[in-house]
Design brief:
Dipeptide-binding Protein, domain 3; alpha+beta; 603 residues; D-Maltodextrin-Binding Protein, domain 2; four-stranded antiparallel sheet; four-stranded mixed sheet
Length: 603
């Protein structure tokens, strides 16, 4: 998902000629340099995760477009107001990549005053408070169509933006907030956009101040989103030429081949050290690994199953460096699915499902130690003060016996194939539960990300584990963008609501901002609450994490959500096992963003 707050992280090649066939065997679906890395070069070939095709350029996240790669590309073109990074080992504000030079909160925690660095757009115009106001006006008027929108939070809880002068403005909140959360999770969502070039309602129209009315802002939003839907024109559209980041786009194809070129007019703190960055898409992890072996990739990855061959990669001039993530991994339940939704709403059923997941076994057998068992909503691969003892100690240990007993104690009986069937319908303590009719078969289907043998193996292992508890589990697969688009928030009467479980977590399901609250994921109406989970206690705890500066608030949230099981908790894999050409310095951000301006070749 999205950059650090996007759940969504995340190409099909067409065979035309013998040359295309050779390219397909190498794994790349077209384009990009085939140079191998060596010190002193001015280009780099960077391998994108399998089937994680970049498909959005506008620096305002759209629903279904919260692909982490989209966010990283956009941030290289248009720098955020407040950028966060954890590649140094500590997640914090990275001012060199931020447009804001300072943020101060009033003593009541109800207002922030922001100072902008003196910056300019690539066309020579200055970056000003008006460019922030432009973003603010568009998001305010179109919040329902903003991928990062959560009801009651930004922009709902921002009552006004006041421009003081070209480099100073204030944002007033509707109440006091946890300032750490406000800076890391809300103000960091803002990206100044070139009002002088984008504030228009058609390609042939003139630039004005349409955003200053709600109706005008809707029209500008519609125009910009229409333009952003035309992927093949990204490299030529004049709109996307006006940037303030260290790079510009010189190539962007619908198959995912992207070339970034250094912005010669950049005047911020992260001037590009490598002139050309080729982002290379792959149809599978195996195909990408073949490209690594043949030397076509400077910065790529291998699968956990290949770790026993580490020496062969170092012999080819690579260093092997696992990239851990500030993330959690899970299957969202679709609580509104007309068939299994009523089952998922039963606490005992979710507990039986969770007790059927052998996380330690998966970490060992599937991920070969390159994953961390996760038992709740706070990342566990990195130590932090946010994790509760309840979550850390796993409230639902693996036990097929215990899982099966939970089901039989609640009115389920094993059928001839071993899969449980509801025999005792009703809402009593020993019955299947409200809304679960007699004859319901306890069979779940997941739509999972394709292109990874690790995911394939994980799904097969889970299928076996669930069956041992009497739970059926069927698997469908699709590219990650398809998974995201076909498993949205929905109501039970919609045809799109037939999905039951979703999996887009080969490299982690959700990468957090610096403050790992669950407002997007688990609060009622949250923008990334795909399964429509809703619980008043969870809502209250999540609200406390955003409004209280006490460290106990987020630990209470961690403990309660670990017990409530709003999703199926799964092992959190390392984002990837990176292989990096010797001589290339490439810091790895645990929030899963890539930062090409920080990469450099040694001499």
């Amino acid at each position: 998902m999205f950059p650090a707050r996007s759940a969504a992280r995340r190409t099909v090649a067409v065979l035309a000629t013998a040359a295309a066939a050779a390219l397909l065997l190498a794994g790349c679906s077209g384009g990009g340099s085939s140079q191998s890395g060596s010190g002193g070069k001015d280009s780099i070939n960077y391998a994108l995760p399998p089937n994680f095709t970049p498909n959005w350029i506008l620096p305002v996240g759209a629903p279904g477009k919260l692909n982490t790669n989209n966010g990283s590309i956009a941030a290289a073109l248009w720098e955020p107001l407040v950028a966060y990074d954890g590649s140094t080992g500590t997640v914090g504000w990275h001012k060199d990549a931020s447009v804001a030079s300072n943020v101060t909160f009033n003593s009541a925690g109800t207002e922030a005053t922001i100072t902008l660095a003196k910056r300019q757009w690539s066309d020579g115009k200055p970056v000003t408070s008006r460019d922030v106001e432009f973003w603010y006006n568009l998001v305010k008027a179109n919040k329902a169509n903003w991928g990062n929108y959560n009801k009651g939070q930004a922009p709902d809880n921002w009552t006004k933006l006041t421009v003081v002068d070209d480099t100073h403005f204030t944002i007033t909140f509707d109440k006091a907030y946890n300032t750490q959360w406000m800076l890391a999770n809300e103000l960091s969502l803002i990206t100044p956009m070139p009002q002088h070039a984008w504030d228009k309602t058609s390609a042939s129209g003139s630039v004005g101040n349409a955003d200053e009315t709600a109706a005008g802002a809707v029209q500008v939003w519609k125009f910009l989103n229409q333009q952003a839907g035309q992927i093949s024109s990204y490299a030529t559209n004049p709109l996307w030429k006006v940037v303030d980041g260290p790079y510009t786009v010189s190539k962007f194809t619908t198959s995912g081949n992207v070339t970034l070129s250094a912005n010669s007019k950049y005047d911020g703190g992260e001037k590009a050290k490598i002139a050309t960055v080729n982002l290379m898409p792959f149809t599978s992890a195996d195909a990408e690994e073949n490209a690594v072996r043949s030397g076509q990739v400077d910065y790529g990855y291998i699968q956990p199953t290949s770790l026993d061959q580490k020496a062969s990669f170092t012999a080819k001039g690579y260093t092997v460096d696992p990239w851990t993530g500030w993330a959690i991994t899970y299957f969202p339940y679709n609580f509104n699915n007309p068939t299994m939704g009523p089952v998922f709403k039963q606490m005992y059923a979710r507990q039986a499902i969770q007790e059927s997941v052998d996380q330690k076994g998966l970490v060992s057998a599937i991920f070969h130690g390159t994953a961390t068992a996760g038992y709740g909503p706070i990342p566990q691969s990195t130590k932090s003060d946010f994790l509760s003892p309840t979550q850390a100690n796993n409230p639902y240990p693996f036990s097929n016996t215990a899982a099966k007993k939970l089901l039989t104690d609640h009115g389920w009986t094993a059928g001839s194939d071993g899969i449980m069937v509801c025999q005792n319908a009703g809402s009593g303590a020993n019955q299947c539960g409200t809304g679960v009719p007699a004859g319901t078969k306890f069979t779940m289907q997941v739509l999972a990300q394709s292109g990874s043998s690790v995911t394939d193996n994980e799904m097969s292992a889970l299928q076996s584990e669930f069956k041992s508890s009497g739970i059926g589990f069927t698997i469908k697969q699709a590219p990650v963008n398809t998974v995201l688009s076909q498993t949205p928030q929905c109501t039970s009467d919609q045809s799109i609501c037939q999905w039951q479980l979703s999996y887009f977590g080969t490299a982690g399901s959700w990468y957090f901002a610096a403050y790992p609250t669950g407002d997007s994921l688990f609060q009622t109406g949250g923008g990334a609450n795909f399964g429509n989970y809703s619980n008043p206690e969870a809502d209250s705890l999540i609200t406390a994490t955003t409004q209280s500066n006490s460290s106990t608030a987020i630990k209470s949230y961690s403990a309660t959500l670990a017990k409530q099981l709003p999703v199926i908790w799964l092992p959190e894999p390392d984002y990837q096992i990176s292989v990096i050409k010797k001589g290339l310095t490439a810091p790895q951000d645990p929030m899963a963003n890539f930062h090409p301006a920080r990469w450099s070749w040694g001499q």
